[in-house]
Amino acid sequence: MFTRRATLAFSLAAALVAGASAMAFAEPEHTPFTxxxxxxAQHAGKPILVEIHASWCPVCAAQAPILSELLSxxxxxxxxxxxxxxxxxxxxxxxxxxxEQSTLIAFKGATEAGRSVGDTHKGSIExxxxxxx
Length: 133
Fold this sequence. Notes:
Number of helices: 5
Oligomer: single chain
Shape: globular
Mean pLDDT: 84
Low-confidence stretches: 1-25
Strand order of the largest sheet: 1-3-2-4-5
Largest sheet: 5 strands, mixed
Order of helices and strands: HEHEHEHEEH
Radius of gyration: 16 Å
């Protein structure tokens, strides 16, 4: 039986390990999010990933190596990745109707192709990305 303190310590250790392993991977190239840049990518018919991210979020840290690996594949070379900071870009977070950090939203041009919240499974994240291409 775990004590509350041991459970919290274990959770913190797991989050730190997830963060450390995420840092071992190269982050995908992000296009700075602005409404104008996002609209331009939509107008150009580009596949788009909007990543609602927080630097303190262990789930976001766990998503980073998965996204890095997937987005390095040739089939996703045209994908435009916008990272929206959950804490400092509240207007953008609200415009995407995102309630939580670790939200991934895929667009095929101007059409939302799918979204996920808190997903750290490579297969389902890949399925989400494939809806945008």
